[in-house]
Amino acid sequence: MNTQNNETRQKPAAVRPVRNAATLIVLRDGTHGLEVLMLRRAEKADDQNSGASVFPGGVIDAHDRSLHAQCSGLDDAAASARLVVPEGGLDYYAAAIRECFEEAGLLFATDKASPGRLVALDGMPAGQLSAMRHAAEQGTDALVAMCEAHGWQLAVDRLAYFTHWLTPPGMPRRFDTRFFLASMPDGQTVRPDGRETVEHLWLQPADAVSPARGLKLMNVTRRILEQLAQFSSVRELMDHARGLKHIPRVMPRLADGPGGRRPVNTEEPAYDEVGRVDPDGQGGGRYALETGLVMRLSPRVWRVTGPADATGALPHSYFAGIEGGDCVLIDPSPASPAHIAALRNAAPGHVRRIWSTLALPLEDAVREAWPEASVLQPAPGESLDLGGATLQVLNGAGGLQFLLAEDSTLFTGTATTAAGTADWIAPRHGFLRRHAVT
Asked: Which intervals hold domain Nudix hydrolase (predicted)?
């Protein structure tokens, strides 16, 4: 029997700090359409993104605020309003430009002598440009001094805020990252720094995510590239980004399954359930359902997944109650020997009643497995107190539904309808999910 019990997970580790970060996605129009700049990170033993292809970016520096005076086209109030933060929004724009200069050698800055035009770094002696980059890498103050000396201002108005991602709980390092877009400046050449980044590529987004290309991509990078692939030109994409009214924060969640641990994205069916059973990313959530899998969904709910039915779907049986006390077994069919054995092994306490959300008679094998349990179906309106777990019987489409009051969880044989009010739906097939109230 495949068992997953979030009560047996290791004790939560110390809370990992979340660091604010900014990333700049540099774009250009290529011969065959939109292209994006990808940098390959250097191989490092202590880096969870070692060797990955990424966009230029990094952590917000405590001194990035000192760059505000060198920013043009956007002040902190407007930047903060765009990012929906109380203050310091301009820090993210400035940091994105700084990191892009440090990692890729591209500087989004204008010369006061030529307003509206980005500086052409290719005209500088190579040694001077290298020295400028090296100085900037040592600290933000050097970039401030460089801008003052050359009469440059960071062109933050050339950046378009695009998306916002938070690293999943449970990762060794967590970043709250704002992603910006900008068009590749004329008169400049991409030069990886050789320390953080060792190679660069210009790729169409669809090509970058293609398995044939073979790039190592973080989940967030892959997801953003898939979004970028919907656009055919820099202008189309930039217009889209500038027109976005609300940019929500996206946070995947880590979960386990046949392919090992991976991030589960917000649109995946398992996302809600993973967040409920494993909010801190310590282990216990699953992204795939498997025959024989036992999941403890809450202190009062256990789910046992049965063999595939005629449609190929994996049906669930549930136990509702208190561990070591009385419980109700909900939907024990299909009554195959293996499923009955799995249910008997998973029972958290004394099975007092056997109920069904389906208008089907119970199989003899179920009655034989729990001969002392009542198999009489309850009537709508009835309530059963199991001592800390209260089940209310409701009349749903196609059969009965059972509301576990303490968990606000509704057990239902249908995937689309829910009687009454509940925060969570425990369906006959599929993952536990939040009840979308319309």
From this structure: 17-230
